[in-house]
Amino acid sequence: MLQQTKPAKSSRLTQLKIHVCRFSTFRKTGGEPFACQFAMDMLKDVEVEYVARMDSDDICALDRFEKQIQFLDSHPEIDIVGSQATIFFDDQTGREPVLSDLPLLDKDIKAFFPQSLWYGFTGTPIFKENKRQQVGDLAQTTQQQYGDRLHEYTVKEAIHDGAVLGFKVDYRNTLITDQAEEKIPDSVYENEEHMLEVLGAIINKSRQQLGFQKGVGKTYNAILTVKSIPQAQAYYDLIKRVKAGQTRVKVSERVKQVLPDFPKATITYSVTENEEDSRANQDHMKQVLEDYNQEFDTHFTMADLRGFNTDVNNRLARKQDKYLYRNEQLDLVIVVNRLLTGFDAPCLSTLFIDRKPMQPQDLIQAFSRTNRIFDSSKTYGHIITFQKPLAFKEAVDNALKLYSNGGENDVLAPSWEEEKRNFLRSCSDFQNLITDDPEEGLQIEQITTPELRKLAKAYQVFDKYLASIRVYKEYDEEEIYAQTGLSAEELETYLGFYQNILAELKSRRDDGDEGGEPLDIHYELESIQVDEINYAYILTLIQSLIEQGQSQEKNLSAQDREAVDTYIHSLEKTNPNLAHIITELWKEVLDKPESYRGQSIANILNQMIEAVIQQHIQVFSKRWYVGEDELRYYVEHYRKGAKKQLGESQLTKSQRYQDYKIEVADALNPLLYKKQIKEACKQLVEEVIEPLRVGR
Q: pTM of the predicted model, to two decimals?
């Protein structure tokens, strides 16, 4: 019998769907074990959160289930709870009720089942170095609980096997003080100035960690963990003010160019932390839910906090296709303890920590939310701390030593000094291989295949380390450029070299000409410009507007439409000709989406671009009196940085200087004519045509 008369004010029972099933006809078919098995078989097809068992003649205390639910909510590592029972002897007068001697503790259960075999799995065992406080005779370590280890597989082995990533830990300090770290009061980390420094770092100085170079819809997300619910609430409110432009910290234009709505944030904590008797928590959470519902078109209320938490989990993990679109994505979730254990989100790259160092097992658990394998651009799980860097580093070092079998060298990312040395070496190696005058370019066609493969490999290593050093807090672009002679223009030239080398290698591979150093021909550059990636995403959004099939037209959300408009507006500053073409297509699709039904937007846009390119070729051919077909071949096979272009001799032969001289009043002499054509061709391709093909 389950009896519940007046649930407590803060009762979780009011938030649960309670199903009561009674089984009373199994005495002849197997008794209690059969009944229990029958019940469990039924539960396989029923979505339930908790299962409680009672004999039909039992009576339970009014708050039994409430207490058990609260305990399970606050101890996610525990799956089963029990309780003692008072036995009444209704059929035997004169006997007093007695407290049953049920096996409650580990030792009691083992004594009750003397032939049992016990073993456990854990990612963060409790060692003597981080043992629990003594409570009665309860086990303080995992070894005391389960005995000697049968086998161990540490994070070091997991990283070596490619099962998880290593960690890149960045210890940041928001304070300028001569005071010893251990004497800094905790209250310092609660004021708004500190919090603004933290948010400034998260919003404007974590683009590389959050994968902004990957473009819209493909960026990573993050968790910010703080010490308390009030602090989490304060951060949530402060983020809203930052986005509204009401603080000294602003969302930078560099961030807005990629994600105009960044950061999309929410707050989540366990349901038991949201008790009804905490009016402040309740009121703030209602506002959070209202903001969340408005952002994602959901309908969560205080009565459905568990559903809200589940939705946050799903949106942060992005394991469903719907979360591949920007309008359904979260960037940052603020937590106290929730999501720091057991939560799996491969697209989560960064954990921001604004609290004291946790226990070793809690640190490793929290860190491990970030190091799931995802894509080639995610090379580490990033951890960024904002309090007492010396104390935090000591705590992290100790935790990693404890959980990586005697050393953390294979677990942590290289130090800044080491990674900078790697970059400088890779930069020097690549630059030393480029012996030709950059103005004239490499004569790629005359270089042997092994040497070309060596060049391409050297550039890939250079690119890898350039992307890597950009995530370190010590990275200073101006300093690096000054030290290496690099510049934005030089990097663009290097990229052109690499792309031309790859094209040549691919053509030789087709001819059976291979050999030399092993090379990943499909290597994805880690330091590429974001505009090219955003281009593809914007086309995906436009495509989704016209996709129909047999279903209704899919309307873009206001946020997605704004994303397209924002991208085009940004593109107008850097690539006005391409922006003009995309604008024209965007307006036509908005006006008449049905005209494009069943077609590929990417193909349509390519056709529009090629039509514009063809027009430029025709105009150039007429202006300079060169063969149109020869010019088109030259344009199609142009390689930036190459000393001699394919089709250059044929283009020269097609020149009609006499016609040019007759028709042009201030005609150049023959030598200047040929020189001017060469320069004009280069300008046409690099400044007009190639920018139109940026998305290819």
A: 0.63
